[in-house]
């Protein structure tokens, strides 16, 4: 599932390519992907334009000239492709937005969605999300205040979007490895220096992953060499049985609250 770095990569790339362009057409092939009747969805989008692309947690927000917004959550299996009639994946597209000959294809949205909102309903939809990890206002002091004394396991707490936004299976494990802390411990067990390590590891991992283009390997467009670059840089995620790059011992996998969890049992304490 795309997490903060993947959606931030999409935000930057789409912002460079579709902002300011008029939506010439919209096609809905699966009514459950949207939240209003298809005719209303198409009527609202045709002739409209994207004024900016934002990210909140694992969501993308396409701000429209009309004042409405499209809220995208790719969930498990969802992805996008920017192409045209001659350049697009041979997959079922749930929604297609046309910008003249260029088209943005939304694919694999069986669990995900692309919803149309006014400002009020958008705020309600996003209201229960936790703070953004890379927000400059989210200081180490606020991090400690948020996590100090929490009884839950580190892994399950980090992926709780109501606690902190944008972290999922991959980056919770990567952050714990960077910090040298086992994800199966609880936050209540952590000493102040360990909380410091967690905070700085979170910043380091996210900035590194964004720079590399995230870990999802589907390109956003033809000749996209950026998307998915972090997959080969993952330290522990999906690396069961491989040598830890820090200590050389083998990475293990455990199932924690039904989630795959990868870590090094030697150098993570």
From TrEMBL:
GO terms for biological process: base-excision repair. Residues 235-269 form the FPG-type domain. Its cofactor is Zn(2+). Keywords: DNA damage, DNA repair, DNA-binding, Glycosidase, Hydrolase, Lyase, Metal-binding, Multifunctional enzyme, Zinc, Zinc-finger. Its EC number is 3.2.2.23, 4.2.99.18. SUPFAM superfamilies: Glucocorticoid receptor-like (DNA-binding domain), N-terminal domain of MutM-like DNA repair proteins, S13-like H2TH domain. One of its GO terms (molecular function) is double-stranded DNA binding. Belongs to the FPG family. PANTHER family: FORMAMIDOPYRIMIDINE-DNA GLYCOSYLASE (PTHR22993:SF9). This is Formamidopyrimidine-DNA glycosylase. It comes from Mesobacillus campisalis.
């Amino acid at each position: 599932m795309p997490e903060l770095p993947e959606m931030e990569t999409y935000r930057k790339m789409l912002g460079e390519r579709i902002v300011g362009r008029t939506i010439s057409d919209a096609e809905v092939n699966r009514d459950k992907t949207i939240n209003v009747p298809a005719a209303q969805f198409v009527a609202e989008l045709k002739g409209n334009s994207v004024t900016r692309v934002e990210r909140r947690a694992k969501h993308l927000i396409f701000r429209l000239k009309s004042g409405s917004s499209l809220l995208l959550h790719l969930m498990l299996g969802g992805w996008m492709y920017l192409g045209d009639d001659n350049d697009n994946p041979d997959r079922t597209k749930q929604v297609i937005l046309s910008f003249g000959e260029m088209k943005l294809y939304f694919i694999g949205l069986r669990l995900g969605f692309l919803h149309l909102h006014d400002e009020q309903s958008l705020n309600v939809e996003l209201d229960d999300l936790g703070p953004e990890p890379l927000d400059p206002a989210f200081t180490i002091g606020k991090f400690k205040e948020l996590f100090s004394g929490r009884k839950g396991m580190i892994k399950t707490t980090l992926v709780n979007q109501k606690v902190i936004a944008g972290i999922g299976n991959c980056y919770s494990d990567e952050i714990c490895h960077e910090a040298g802390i086992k994800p199966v411990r609880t936050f209540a067990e952590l000493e102040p220096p360990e909380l410091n390590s967690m905070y700085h590891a979170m910043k380091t991992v996210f900035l590194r992953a964004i720079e590399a283009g995230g870990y999802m390997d589907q390109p956003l467009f033809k000749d996209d060499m950026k998307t998915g670059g972090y997959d080969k840089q993952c330290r522990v995620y999906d690396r069961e049985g491989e040598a830890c790059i820090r200590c050389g011992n083998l990475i293990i996998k455990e199932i924690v609250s039904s989630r795959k969890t990868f870590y090094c049992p030697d150098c993570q304490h």
